[in-house]
């Protein structure tokens, strides 16, 4: 059963003052529930465009995009998104930051506060709930960002270079953390990265894109025994 379905997707940007760019062409793939896939390729191959389309943040021209059985036609509660920077609100505590999607979507705070605390504990941030973002390291802030993306139990977690702003060692550590989070949550994850080793380390399947226009060059199945 496919949790994400992308068929014959084509995306052309038509800026008013310059030539149109075909960012994506002939994109076809499916993601099963609980699967972890990565999208890799050089800068400009359309990775961010693909993620934004899945997230319903930009319209796509042609093709079909379905998430959790629904046609994507705008931002949907089925999606959780992690950006390159944690983008936590500095005036809110860590717990209050994690609760933001619950408030934005008008869900019950009481029902989700326990989930928020559980997620923070899962990523090793128990005890930091009442602290402010500036009191935490970059890696800790990004972990809080992951909790925020998961708090409303989305069908799919989308991540765009989530650890790109972190130093190499923290990044490596965070990748191991992410694998652990994935194993515990059973999330369906689409990760965009320019690092092939990272993609191979993390995912079940790696989709490699070519630039201009972004097409699927190959899909690599990663055979591995998870610990
Ligand atoms: P990546 O994330 O792989 O670096 P992007 O999705 O950012 O690739 O961009 C894919 C292509 O689309 C690039 O050629 C880029 O210049 C172009 N592009 C991206 N966003 C826009 C936009 N808003 N307007 C015009 N062209 C864009
Ligand atoms: P990345 O490579 O990290 O995905 P980019 O530098 O390609 O980021 O793009 C950053 C943002 O700028 C993208 O989200 C895209 O919307 C916008 N962008 C990229 N290329 C263009 C372009 N040619 N014209 C207008 N906007 C663009």
From TrEMBL:
GO molecular function per UniProt: ATP binding; ATP hydrolysis activity
Start and end residues of each ABC transporter domain: 4-227
Keywords assigned by UniProt, alphabetized: ATP-binding, Nucleotide-binding, Transport
Annotated signal sequence range: none
Protein name: ABC transporter ATP-binding protein
Organism of this sequence: Streptomyces oceani
Shown segment, full-protein numbering: 21 to 247 of 276
């Amino acid at each position: 059963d496919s949790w994400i379905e992308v068929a014959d997707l084509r995306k052309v940007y038509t800026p008013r003052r310059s030539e149109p760019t075909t960012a994506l062409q002939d994109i076809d793939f499916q993601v099963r529930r609980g699967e972890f896939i990565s999208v890799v390729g050089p800068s400009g191959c359309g990775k961010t465009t693909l993620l934004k389309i899945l997230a319903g943040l930009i319209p796509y021209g042609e093709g079909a995009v379905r998430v959790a059985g629904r046609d994507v036609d705008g931002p949907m509660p089925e999606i959780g998104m992690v950006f390159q920077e944690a983008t936590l609100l500095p005036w809110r505590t860590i717990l209050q930051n994690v609760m933001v999607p619950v408030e934005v979507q008008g869900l019950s705070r009481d029902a989700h506060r326990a989930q928020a605390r559980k997620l923070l504990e899962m990523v090793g941030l128990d005890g930091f709930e009442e602290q402010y973002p500036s009191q935490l390291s970059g890696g800790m802030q990004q972990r809080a960002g992951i909790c925020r993306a998961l708090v409303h139990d989305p069908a799919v977690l989308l991540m765009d270079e989530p650890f790109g702003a972190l130093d190499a060692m923290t990044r490596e550590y965070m990748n191991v953390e992410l694998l652990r989070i994935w194993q515990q949550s059973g999330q369906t994850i689409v990760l965009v990265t320019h690092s092939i080793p990272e993609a191979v380390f993390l995912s079940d399947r790696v989709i490699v894109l070519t630039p201009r226009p972004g097409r699927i060059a190959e899909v690599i199945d990663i055979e591995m025994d998870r610990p």
